[in-house]
Recover the amino acids of this structure.
């Protein structure tokens, strides 16, 4: 599943039968290449749900067992700094010092939150004629504020999307 597919998806409490918010972003643990929380926006402002508390990611909604799982974020600045949305557009550089593209999306395992791959866009002009390639999460070397480094000379597998 692509991270972008979760944007604006409602999060529903099964025990309460209420929508507790909409997915606005996901935070991640760069060390383990894994999603930590879903960041929600709702009538009470921002809140977070630990990824481990998700019951299921469905086609129409993300379900959790109980609305009491929803927490206030520890620090709004912390959410922005670690959000998956901050990865979009970052250049991806290989160990040879070459920019191989920029992050277009992130693919994740919806069961455990593990990041599977960075979907890297390369080539083209203004997105026209570009190719999307998948760089496996195992190749990610570092995630900085303005650059991602990877241990690969070129993206490994085609993501099947050409613009």
């Amino acid at each position: 599943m692509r991270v972008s597919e979760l944007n604006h998806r409602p999060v529903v409490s099964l025990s309460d039968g209420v929508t507790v918010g909409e997915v606005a972003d996901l935070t991640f643990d760069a060390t383990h290449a894994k999603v930590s929380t879903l960041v929600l926006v709702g009538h009470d402002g921002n809140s977070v749900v630990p990824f481990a508390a998700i019951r299921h990611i469905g086609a129409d909604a993300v379900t959790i067992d109980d609305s009491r799982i929803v927490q206030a974020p520890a620090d709004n600045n912390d959410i922005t700094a670690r959000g998956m949305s901050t990865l979009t557009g970052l250049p991806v550089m290989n160990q040879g010092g070459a920019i191989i593209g920029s992050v277009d999306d992130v693919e994740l395992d919806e069961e455990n939150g593990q990041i599977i791959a960075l979907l890297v866009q390369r080539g083209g002009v203004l997105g026209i004629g570009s190719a999307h390639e998948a760089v496996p999460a195992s190749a990610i070397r570092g995630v900085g504020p303005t650059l991602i480094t990877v241990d690969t000379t070129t993206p490994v597998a085609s993501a099947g999307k050409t613009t």
About this structure: The chain has two domains: 3-85, 87-162. The helical segments are 76-82. Residues 53 and 64 are 6 Å apart (CA to CA).
